[in-house]
C-alpha cells in the first residue's frame, strides 16, 4: 500500500515556512507499514492543487494533504476538494458546536470568517479536530482515500494519531528498515568496502548511504518479500564489514546514544565551548531527562572569559593562541572541576569566514575530553562553511565522548 503527501501553501515554496510535517508523517506511515511514494508541495492555486491530486491518484492508494483549511481568502483547499470530488459545502451542526465551545472564552474570534469553518463538503466523512477549528475531511474514491488535515504541526499530529492512522486499511506489505551508523571513513571508500555485499543482496533489498556531519547512516530496506530473519542476517553481515568504523546499530541521534550511556553509568558531564557557541550544550539537553547527567556549560567565546572564568593561563593564550591543545585541555579540566562532573568536553576553533591563518585555516577545531582517567585532545579540520564546521564539531565531540565512555 502506497501513500503520497501533498503540502499546500505558498509559504512552503518561498522558504518562509519549513515543511516539518512531511518528515513526521513519513515516519509514522512507515511504522504502520505504508510506503510513502512521494511528497509534493504546491501553491495555493486551484489548478496546481488539482493537478497534484490527479497525479497522486494515478500512483497511490492514499493521499494525505495538509494546509489551506483556514478561514482566510488564501485558504482554498476545502473548496477545491469540493470541486474535485463533485460535492458542495453544507453547514455541520457538530463542527459549529465544537468551534463555539472552542472559542467560548474568546468571543472576538467568532466572526463571519470563523463561521466558514463549519461549512464542510457534503460527501466527505467529517472527523473531529479537538485542538483546532478546521475540521478533518476524509474522501473516498473507490478503493482510494484522501485525508485533508490542517497545516499547523500540532493539529496535524493529533489528527494523524487520533483520527487518520486508525482508519487506514491494514497494509498488505511488510516494510523492514535496519540502520547502523559509521564514522571515520569517506562515503566513497565505504561504498568500495561494501561493493561485494551490495552485489550479492537480494533484488528486493536496498542499501542507502545517508551522510551528515561526519556520520554515515547505512540503511537496509526491504518492502514485502524479506523476512525478519533474512534482514537480520544481512544486517549482521553489514555490521561485521563495518566493524572498524561502526558507532551504533540504531538510527538514534548521537546525543541520544551519549545520553543513554551516561544514564546507564550514572555519569555526569559539562561543556566549555568557544567556536560551537552553546550548540553542544543545546544538543546534550534537548531531550527529556537530561538533568540526570548534564550539569551545565561555560560559553567562553572571548579570551577574557577563558582566562577569568575557566582559568586558562594568559601566557598559553599568548604563546599558542585560543585554538590550541594547551588551551582546550585547560578549558575541559577547568569546567569539569567547576561543575563537579565525571566528564567534560571543550571546543575551540576557527569557524570563519574570517580569522584563518596558513597554520590554522578556517575549519580548524581543537577539542578536549576531560575524564576521571585523564584528558585527551585532538585537532580536526572540519570544512569551510561556518554552520558546517560547528555542526561537525559537535558531532565529533559527542562521537569521541561515546567512544571514551563505552
List keywords for this structure.
406 residues; alpha/beta; Molybdenum Cofactor Biosythetic Enzyme, Chain A; Alpha-Beta Plaits; Maf protein; 3 domains; six-stranded mixed β-sheet; five-stranded mixed β-sheet; 15 helices; globular
Span between termini: 41 Å
**Structural class determined from secondary elements:** alpha/beta
Radius of gyration using CA atoms only: 27 Å
Residue share in helix: 25-40%
Low-confidence stretches: none
Number of domains: 3
CATH superfamily of the largest domain, please?
Answer: MoaB/Mog-like domain
Please report the first level of CATH classification, the CATH class of the largest domain.
Alpha Beta
The CATH topology annotation of the largest domain reads as: Molybdenum Cofactor Biosythetic Enzyme, Chain A
Q: What share of the residues does DSSP label as strand, in percent? A: 25-35%
DSSP strand tally: 17
Query: Looking at the structure, what is the overall shape?
Result: globular
Under the CATH scheme, which architecture of the largest domain would be assigned? 3-Layer(aba) Sandwich
